[in-house]
Amino acid sequence: MSGLLRNLLALLIGLLHHNRKNADSTVTTTFWVTPLDAGLKVLKSDKYLQYAETAQLDYLLHIGQFFPVLRSGASFVNVALQVQFFRPVPLFSRVTVETRLLYTTDKCAYFAHRLFAKGTLAAEVLVKMKFKRGRATVAPAAFLAVSFAQVPEQVQRWEAALQGSQATAPAPVKKG
Question: Hey, what's the signal peptide range on this chain (predicted)?
Fold first, then answer.
């Protein structure tokens, strides 16, 4: 199923659950793996990311922040993604995605999306995202009213890995 159609369906279904959860809640979204999501027999790797993005949209609906984000002129942009695959997901399987907010800073929000198929963890997608209004970054606190006592170890490890990869990345090429 195309990402646009999946997002539209999630939006319509999510309206039934609009504003029923807090930002610190885990939100569950369910998908069916269709032939458009699979290669020969299993879910294609890029679809895990699409499921996570749609689950993030559903999360914003459940916590009642999807429309405030839109009204403010903001959108959400994924800055970094990390996927850990545990097992393949067969065609026509029902996939449950559990989405929760791990942490926020003054610029970014960190989400964990755990994908389950047949009751077993199939993958985990970590997402570092920003709310953007044009070129400006909007603090996640504007939409996600959650305070955190400390940075979770999972976020610390991921940030350290991201910083390490940036240090070893080649310098961008200047044009002109």
Answer: none
pTM of the model: 0.86
- Calculated CA dihedral for residues 148, 154, 155, 160, nearest 10 degrees: 140
Q: What is the assigned CATH class of domain 3-168?
A: alpha beta
143, 68 Cβ separation under 8 angstroms: yes
Structure tokens at 33: 């793996």
Instruction: Give the SS3 label for residue 62.
Output: helix
Task: Kindly give the parts of the chain with pLDDT less than 70.
Answer: 1-8, 10-19, 167-176
First-to-final CA distance of the chain: 42
- DSSP H or E stretch at residue 128: strand 120-133
C-alpha 100 chain-centroid distance: 9
Nearest to 111 by CA among 171, 165, 62, 71: 62
